[in-house]
Design a protein that fits this description.
heterodimer, A: alpha+beta, two-stranded antiparallel sheet, 16 helices, B: 70 residues, 4 helices, 43% helix
Chain lengths: 392, 70
């Protein structure tokens, strides 16, 4: 445990060298802030994606033709329901509606208002939802991004969709999804399945695909084989394939991550290089004096290492705080667009607060260890020379 | 700085996660984000339509492939 005098001297030294430290402190803070921002944002998105995966069906069945997914007959759902182990099989309707004038599109999802899971979740999601009133005419519930877009074009009460066969479908805006769900609902419009089919040009007896729930894990392989035996032209996507695909989204092979790694690495190499070459004659003299007044090599090294460690620690703390404010308070302007995209409806996304402390400790180690070790070698080189030589 | 970090940690620990995202995906049964991507890119990333599998052609560049790796 260092004595009070040692600690006093350490802080005096940092204060004396404040100009020398300030440049490194600013650069280090910026590096930590940038890198932490990406990590925090990526972690928060990963955590949000986990929430969307929990309620996914166990199987998705798509009809394939010429290597393309095409509309699937609704009656297949009844056939799949007869397979032992299948709890429910539901046709799903969704697709993109292209708004020609400015090239934006909405994602239309058709729901079955008589499905218990759907209505329960919808009632929790939309306050004061009256299913009867919702079904009484052609209504839709829209995401905040769609709402902003429609307001801009003065569609405050309804919107006229133009289905592929040329007619018009006037659909009233019933409610808007809460902004907290923007990350998944921003461009989405939810309406009754038959209405969605008319707008998307899907035949009445068809659906986009079919989803199946098979609660018993042991029966899933068998169910999959039976489905393939029933229809040879299908593609079955399992829930774990989707989970795997989404987990892999956040590995470190992505171009942006690679780019940021390279920037961080290059800057760090520069800092290290600067640190190596920064032992000036004044520093040599200072170490020489300390050695001459009786400090051991170990004390000198300890002092210099602690000096660098404190600067690095403060830079790390400040960088992390800046990153946290940037990501969670200001919703990561610019950097967020890299992750969400910016080519369709603009999204105002609020992320849930999530910090992966394992990731933070890894970042801390990767930042502090090279920082401190860069000082260790030159200080040791000078500390071992004769004090008289060092002061010359 | 210490106070700021303490506030940050307590903000994370005391943050109450909204169930809106779970409820929304229970309604739509669609995974993933509402990505703001151009029309040629998949909106639901894991459901590619495999259109280029049998008839390879020049595929449009998918911007999000640069951001997310699969």
């Amino acid at each position: 445990m260092p004595s009070n005098a040692f600690v006093n001297f350490l802080f005096l030294l940092i204060y004396r060298h404040r100009v020398k430290h300030s440049a490194i402190f600013i650069i280090s803070t910026l590096i930590v802030a940038l890198f932490s921002s990406v990590m925090l944002l990526s972690n928060a998105l990963q955590s949000e994606i986990g929430l969307t995966l929990s309620s996914q069906p166990d199987f998705i069945v798509q009809k394939m033709r010429s290597g393309k997914a095409v509309d699937t007959p609704v009656e297949w759902a009844d056939e799949f329901r007869t397979i032992r182990g299948v709890k429910s099989a539901l046709p799903r309707v969704f697709g993109r509606y292209f708004y020609e004038p400015n090239g934006y599109y909405f994602t239309i999802v058709g729901i079955d208002p008589f499905d218990e899971q759907t209505t329960d979740a919808l009632e929790e999601l939309v306050e004061d939802l009256d299913v009867k009133a919702f079904l009484s005419r052609d209504n839709m519930i829209i995401g905040s991004g769609v709402k902003r877009f429609l307001d801009q074009y003065r569609y405050t009460d309804y919107f006229d969709f133009r289905p592929p066969h040329g007619s018009r479908e006037k659909v009233y805006i019933y409610e808007t999804f809460p902004e907290e769900s923007n990350i998944v609902s921003n461009d989405t419009i939810i309406m009754e399945a038959d209405l969605a089919k008319r707008i998307l040009g899907i035949d009445e007896e068809m659906s986009t695909d079919i989803v199946l729930y098979v609660p018993n894990e042991l029966e899933r392989d068998n169910v999959m084989v039976k489905m393939i035996l029933m229809h040879y032209d299908i593609r079955v996507i399992r829930k774990n394939e989707i989970e795997k695909a989404y987990k892999n989204l956040f590995n470190y092979k992505g171009g942006v991550f690679l780019l940021l790694y390279m920037i961080v690495l290059m800057t760090f190499v520069l800092i290290l290089y600067q640190r190596y070459s920064m032992i000036s004659s004044a520093d040599k003299k200072e170490i020489g004096i300390l050695r001459a007044v009786g400090w051991s090599i170990k004390d000198v090294i300890k002092l210099k290492v602690l000096e660098s460690f404190l600067v690095a620690l403060l830079a790390f703390g400040l960088g992390l705080l800046i990153a946290y404010l940037y990501v969670f308070m200001f919703n990561a302007p610019m950097l967020g667009s890299v992750f969400y995209g910016y080519s369709n409806l603009p999204a105002d996304i609020k992320l849930g607060r999530t910090i992966d402390f394992g990731m933070l400790s890894m970042l801390f180690l990767f930042f502090i260890v090279p920082f401190v070790s860069a000082v260790l070698v030159p200080v040791w080189k000078i500390a071992v020379v004769d004090p008289v030589e060092a002061m010359k | 700085l210490g106070l700021g970090l303490a506030v940050m940690v307590s903000d994370v620990l005391l943050f109450k996660h909204s169930s809106d995202i779970e409820n929304f995906s229970a309604v739509t049964r669609l995974p993933g984000f509402s990505l703001s991507v151009i029309y040629f890119e998949p909106r639901v990333r894991s459901y590619r339509d495999f259109s280029g599998t049998l008839y390879p052609d020049m595929k449009p560049i998918s911007y999000m492939d640069f951001v997310y790796a699969e």
